[in-house]
Amino acid sequence: MLTTLLAFLGACTLIAASPGPGTMLIIRKSLQSRRAGFMTVLGNETGVFVWGLAAAFGLTALLAASEVAYDVMRIVGAGVLVMFGVRTLLEVRRGAGKAGAVGEAGAPEPEQKRSGWSSYRAGLVCNLANPKAAVFAMSFLPQFVPDGVPHLPAMVALAAIWAVFEVGYYGMYVWFVGRMRAIISRERVRRRLELASGGVLVALGVRMAVEG
User: Fold this and answer.
1) Average pLDDT of each block of 10 consecutive residues along the chain (212 residues)?
2) CA 22 – CA 204 distance, rounded (Å)
3) Cα(first)–Cα(last) distance of the chain, in Å?
4) What is the largest CA-CA distance in the chain?
5) How many CB atoms sit inside 10 A of residue 147's CB?
6) d(Cα 49, Cα 167) in Å, to the nearest integer?
7) Model-level pTM?
8) Residues 6+ positions from 42 with CB-CB distance below 8 Å
9) Where are the beta strands (DSSP E) in 158-212?
10) Nearest C-alpha neighbor of 190 from the set 76, 125, 120, 97
11) How far apart are CA 31 and CA 92, in angstroms?
12) Which three-class secondary structure state does DSSP give residue 49?
C-alpha cells in the first residue's frame, strides 16, 4: 500500500508539473494577489476532486463514450479559456492590471478584497469545462487501486489525495509569485506578464477547439 501511494504521489507530481490551462490561470490570478491565486488553486482542485468522484462512479466513461457530448464540452471549455484570456488582455489594455497591486501603506486595494470567490469560481469552471480532465481521471486513478481493495472507496480516497496534494503543489506557485511581488508590481513587468498569461490562455483555448 505504501509503495502504491508513493508511486501515485510521484505521478501526481509529474501531472502537476505539466503546464496546462489550470496552471496558467493560477499564475495569472496570483499576479493579482496571493488570496486570488490561492482561491483559484482551491477552485481548480475542487474540480479535480469532482472529476475523480465522477470517475469513481463511472460517469466519466459516459462522456468518453459519447463523441457528441465530448465535442460539446470541448468547445465550451475552449470558449471558457478564450474568454479568460481575452478578459486578461482587455484588463491590461484598460490599465486594470494595476488593480491588485499593494498600496503604499501595504493594504490591499478594494478589488483585491473582492477577488477571492470570483477566483475560486474561475478555477472551478476552468477545470470542469475541460473534458480531457474528466477522461484523464477515468484512465489515471484506476491504475493505482491495489488488488483486493474495494474499488469505489479506493478511487474516492485517491481523488481526495490527488486534490490535496495539488493544493500544496500549486500553493508553492502562489507563494513564489508573492515573493516576487517587489519585481512583479512594477508596471512594465506586470503588464508583460499579464499579456503573456492572457495570450497563453487564448492559445490553449484555440488549441482545445481545433483538436479532435
Assistant:
1) 85 85 87 90 95 86 72 78 81 60 43 72 90 83 85 91 95 87 68 77 78 64
2) 11
3) 37
4) 60
5) 5
6) 11
7) 0.75
8) 120, 123, 167
9) none
10) 97
11) 12
12) helix
